[in-house]
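Ticket 4471: requesting a sanity check on a complex prediction with iron/sulfur cluster. Repro inputs:
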Amino acid sequence: MIMPLIKGLQITLSHMFKKPVTLQYPTERPQIANTFRGLHALNVSHDKAKCVACYLCPTVCPAKCITVEAGEDQNHDKYAAKYEIDMLRCIFCGYCVEACPVDAIRMTEQFELANYSRADFTFTKERLLEKK
Ligand code: SF4
Ligand code: SF4
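Returned structure tokens:
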């Protein structure tokens, strides 16, 4: 009767001095691998989005969750008047980043994807430009 109790205490005590395998999230943050594919962000050049609305990323996206609408500026250059990603459908495959010919989109280290409404899972161009 007493031996199993001592054995149990031994195991408990031995674990008290080991490095914990869990993190005190969210105060402690996990180390993110540099190959991690997190939430998307649009890249900027000369204070505007680099996207030239070529439609390659919505074409290659297997989840069909990217919506692009092209516009034309005063210099007759194409730009993305609308750029949206439905994060509820995205499978984080990274094809959109690979396909982009002008490095206009990247995947960040951010992984927290919680919202209160379905509409908040639609990442608009403005939200994608805010991401670091
Ligand atoms: S990561 Fe994949 S599924 Fe998500 S938007 Fe890009 S291409 Fe589509
Ligand atoms: S993000 Fe890149 S691939 Fe997608 S529409 Fe814009 S320029 Fe084309």
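Notes from triage: The first helix runs from residue 2 to 16. Leaving this open until the requester confirms.
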